[in-house]
Description:
Helix content: under 10%
Mean pLDDT: 93
Order of helices and strands: EEEEEEEEEE
Amino acid sequence: VHLVESGVQAGGSLRLSCAASGTTDGLTAMAWYRQAPGKQRELVAEITGLEIGGGRTTYADFVKGRFWLFRREVANTVDLTMHSLSPEDTAMYLCNAKQVDEVGLPPQNYWGQGTQVTVQV
Length: 121
């Protein structure tokens, strides 16, 4: 699985997109994480259940009501739309995909190249 990230800014909002390509059969989840300098990587938002059509989206408490994650199934893409950004949201944002190669084995993790988001006052 190959993940390609891109971003579009519109006014004070930002949309990050992550497109999965390659052998995408067996994808079970796609997500966005972030990592700020000196801090641990943390989950921002995730869509799970892709193997059954995808259905559950979860958000970190610090983005609830501000960030929204949507999946474009045909394009194997997830879009993270970010509103009400603050300097605390400054971080490297990384796309993640989980894929089960064989039933009974833990999923493989794949990562995008990372997209730097810098929010200034």
